[in-house]
Specification:
The longest helix has about 30 residues. α3 packs antiparallel against α5. Helix content is about 75%, strand content about 0%. By secondary structure, it is mostly helical. The radius of gyration is 19 Å and the shape is elongated. The chain has one domain: Up-down Bundle (Fumarate Reductase Cytochrome B subunit), CATH 1.20.950.
């Protein structure tokens, strides 16, 4: 498989970034829920340590993906026969995902910095953790997490629609099947 995308299929770099990011986002959502529901401050700090590291990784991967598209690669053409409104919806969801991810990373980092929790999470400072809800970026982080889930459901639903209803083998373009 070539590193760069062709007119029919995404290249290895785009596919790898996509699937690593997707899997990490699912883990992030799970760790965020686990941290929010943890009654043990030490366990919450340990979960948030992993959550924060994964968040930074997702942010870096997203920036790399955007730079890859801008500097080195092109996206395959839209599936033939795709109505204009679907092409607009597709672009809107993709750009929405990139934007929400980058703002979520920023709001997560801002929450850690504004509350001083970064020292507790990464440096072993005294527990319990501060009240995250006391800073505005935390509220934005929660709202964006819900928006991210909606965008992901739209993205996944559209991919499955194309694969199984339209039969245009969209998933094969992203490395799943032929």
């Amino acid at each position: 498989m070539p590193l760069k995308s062709t007119a029919e299929r995404y290249g290895l770099v785009a596919i790898t970034i996509h699937w690593v990011t997707a899997l990490t986002i699912f883990a992030m959502l799970g760790s965020g829920l686990a941290a929010a529901n943890s009654a043990d401050p030490a366990a919450e700090a340990a979960i948030l340590r992993v959550h924060a590291i994964m968040g930074i990784c997702i942010g870096v991967l997203t920036v790399l993906r955007i730079l890859w598209w801008l500097a080195a690669d092109r996206r395959p053409a839209a599936p033939s026969g795709m109505p204009g409104w679907q092409a607009i919806a597709s672009k809107s969801v993709h750009y929405g995902l990139y934007g929400v991810i980058l703002v979520m990373v920023s709001s997560g980092v801002a929450t850690l910095l504004l509350t001083g929790a970064s020292q507790q999470i990464f440096g072993g400072g005294a527990l319990p953790l501060p009240d995250f809800s006391a800073v505005p970026p935390y509220s934005a982080h929660g709202i964006l997490a819900r928006l991210l889930i909606v965008l992901m459901l739209g993205h996944i639903g559209a991919a499955l629609y194309h694969q199984f209803i339209r039969g245009d083998r969209l998933l094969a373009r992203m490395g799943l099947g032929r």
